[in-house]
Amino acid sequence: MTKNEVTVVETQAMPTLSDNKQLNSALAVAEELSKSDIIPKEFQKKPANCLIAVELANRLKASPFQVMQNMDVIYGRPALRSSFVIACINNSGKIIGSLKFEMNEKSTKCRAWAIEKETGSKLTGPTVTMEMAEKEGWSTKNGSKWRTMPELMLRYRAAAFFGRLYCPEILNGMYTEDEVTDFKQPANTEVVDVFEDDIEPTEAEVTAEMQAMADEYFEEQSNEAEQQQLL
Questions:
Q1: Where are the domains of the chain?
Q2: Beta strand ranges found along 81-142 (DSSP E)
């Protein structure tokens, strides 16, 4: 790419990592993106990080730049911003219209819901409460946004719970930015060696059934190898 060249990348054509040809294509895109100085610093001059953004963009049907702008690394974990997760749910094709939120009169409870496109049924996510935020320690941390903007945080967490339940392919094991921020850091604990010097580790007993299964497996492997040589 030249500085004056504007390249329009079709989202549907973004490469994945399923084979060597697509991997090389994705690597080339990641290499070019890493040269930019207008992308977040976590991606600048880091093709490997850009490659992850390219792969995630393909899965979410978004642009790599959009993913980069909405991904943060917190406590060493990549996390998506909640507003971006909501946008992905709205664009998933699974729901009619957009994600909605229900709150009680005191604004202390919230749940996300939407109408499923395939069945027309109402999908309701788990309820998130301020009591939950307190018990989980989300609202007691210094500088917690749960104290200053509780209604927004209730909606964000409700959206994340909804997405994890009804659109798992979007988060796919990832957490939102506010979820990672709310994680309790593990306390420093002493590492105990379960195999102390004065304890002799015992070997697992090999039963006759286990031995027979092993013999059968290696015999099958040997037969397959012989057949391959004859071809």
A1: 11-69, 83-182
A2: 95-103, 109-116, 122-124, 128-129
